[in-house]
Amino acid sequence: METKNELKAVKEFNHPAEKVFSAWTEPEQLKQWWHPMNAKLTEVKNDLKEGGEIEYRFTAGEQESFSITGEYSEVKPNELLVYSWKWHLPHGEDDYKLSVHFISTEAGCRLEVVQENFEHQEQVEPHQQGWEHGLSNLASFLDGGNNSRPAGTINDHIPIVGYGSSE
Predict the structure, then answer these.
(1) 3-state secondary structure of 80
(2) What is the CATH number of the domain that holds 63?
C-alpha cells in the first residue's frame, strides 16, 4: 500500500510578504539564494499564473545536472502558490505537490512550505533538511547576506541520491 508522507518547513521573516514572495518568484532573486544540494540554479522559467509552467535547471559541480518542472494550480500573489514539483535527477524522477504560504504577520511574514506525496518516509528527511537550509539562505539573502556560493556551504552531506527515488 502506498503512503503519502509530507513535510512542513516554517520560517519567520522580518520582511513583508511581498518582499518574500518576490524573492521566491523572481528568477534573478531566486538564483541568488536557492541552491538545493549545493547546486547552482542556472535557468528559471516561471509563468506565474494558474496553469503556468515552472522549470528550474541546475548544475552541481562535477555531478550531473538536474531540473525541476511543474505547473501552478493556484496562484494568489503575496499569499499562496500551489504547484506540481517534479524532480528530474540522474537516477530517476519524483513527483510532489508543493504549497507555499506567505502569511503576513506583525513582524513581517511567516513562510510555510508543505511538500506532499513522498512515496517513502526515508525521502522526507533529506528534503526537510534541504528546505531548512534553503529557507535559511532566503533569510540571509533578504537580510542582505551573500548566498552566491552554493558549493562548499552547509549541507554538503545531502547527496543527490538522497532526494530521488528509493534505491
Answers:
(1) strand
(2) 3.30.530.20
